[in-house]
Amino acid sequence: MSLTHLNSRGEAHMVDVGDKTETRREATAGGRIHMRSETLALLAEGGLPKGDVLATARIAGIQAAKKTHELIPLCHALALSKVEIGFELDEANACVEVKATCRLTGRTGVEMEALTAVSVACLTLYDMCKAVDKDMRIDSVRLLSKTGGKSGDYRRNETADDPRATAPSSLAAPSRDAATNRDMPMITGESPDGHISIAPRNEQPCIQVKFLAELRERLGISDIDIPLESLPSPTVAGLKQALQSHDTRFSLLGERRVLCAVNQVMSADDMSLTDGDEVAFFPPVTGG
Amino acid sequence: MISVQTAPFDVGTEQQVLTRKRTDIGAVVSFTGLVRDFNERPDVQALTLEHYPGMTEQALQDIVAEAEARWALQGIRLIHRVGRLEPGDPIVMVAVASAHRRHAFEACDFIMDYLKTRAPFWKKEHTVSGHYWVAERNTDIEDAKRWEAT
Question: Could you tell me the EC number(s) of this protein (chain B) (predicted)?
Fold first, then answer.
């Protein structure tokens, strides 16, 4: 027996409940986020402060496809039978190619769902990586193909408008690049050691925790969201305990010199915390 | 007025702004802090100043408000730079205007002592022999204590 919300690689995806009639609609959209090659390398090895980047972006894309009708005024609410989000890490061009495929059996097309999924997956990649790279650029959000429906099938002629296809370097070895992309590891499921995946935003009451200056560098992490319910008590002391049970490195927070601010006001261990509070830990100040 | 900025500043210009169209100011005391080329280690090539946006500005505001409550002041200008700075660069400026010099001298001294111990800024120094975060100094803490319980 297998879990139907996980595919063979353990990645989360929506289950295909369609394929029952002839009126099947499918659309695939693509988009790209360009970043520095160092950022891409960090993303590939799971070294980014917010943790499991691709898994989070995949869930964000799936969620966005389901909410398209809330965002685009004249879109119908659709019962999508399948949403699939894929990532290709393109080292040669220092970008991540995001693809989303949406499918349903019904009377309306799903290209807006696929485009929305790609856009939000790209935005999530930006959000997850922006701590180390603010120069990232999202572009080429486009419909790649659609099938079914009155207007007939459509397939984009990628060689005509893909800037990478006209670049001399990709002309030289396009097939090898494609092979490299497929060999890139997918990062899903458990985070690499020392990194903590964030919970999907707004799903549960959370405390936003920040680490500043030397403390951030010693911990190797700048931001994490900690579910309020994981705190043994709703105080700064409880938050420290919850962090330490996540990862022993957070025992650093027990040092006397580590200071704490709750919602940007200096606070002691007994300060109480509620949903949405911003808690920052930092070393003694050295300005002036 | 308080600014946290990456851009350099000019002390002369700032002082002119502070005293423009005023005839009630009898004294302006200003302090300017510069990046030194030696600190915990020699050969400091640059430093990077980090702050906590939001909290830093509020902390500076609180320090200025406390100075205004303690002394009779007619204007305060406080600028602190962040980002990468090199030896010789101005890093912080406090200018205090008052009717009489004593108030201006003391308030300026007070603001710098509190800024160094209470405002969220952190320095990382880049030297020939490596990078390190600057440690807090006991002398700064002792200096700030001078203003307590008085």
Answer: 2.8.1.12
Would residue A200 count as lying in a domain?
no
Q: Smallest Cα–Cα separation from A10: which of A191, A196, A190, A194?
A: A190
- pLDDT tens for B66-120 read 999 999 999 999 999 999 999 999 999 999 999 999 999 999 999 999 999 999 9
Confirm if A78 and A11 have CB atoms less than 8 A apart.
no
Query: Domain for residue A201, yes or no?
Result: no
Query: Two tokens at A115?
Result: 């485009």
Contact B136 A264 (CB under 8 A): no
As a 3-state breakdown, chain B gives helix, strand, coil percent values, each rounded to 5, of 35, 35, 30
The number of C-beta contacts closer than 8 angstroms across A and B is 69
Please name the residue of chain A whose CA is at the shortest distance from the CA of residue B93. A288
Query: pLDDT tens across B18-66, in order?
Result: 999 999 999 999 999 999 988 878 889 999 999 999 999 999 999 999 9
Instruction: Identify the domain containing residue A129 by its residue range.
Output: 24-183
In-domain check, residue A191: no
Q: What is the CATH number of the domain that holds A263?
A: 3.10.20.30
Interface of A with B in 183-242 (CB under 8 A): 212-214, 217
Please state which CATH number belongs to domain B2-145: 3.90.1170.40
Question: Quick one: tokens of A73?
Answer: 């005024």
- Residue positions forming the annotated binding site of A for substrate: 74-76, 112-113
Flag if A282 and B52 touch (Cβ within 8 Å).
yes
- For residue A194, is it within any domain? no
Question: B119 and A213: CB-CB below 8 Å?
Answer: no
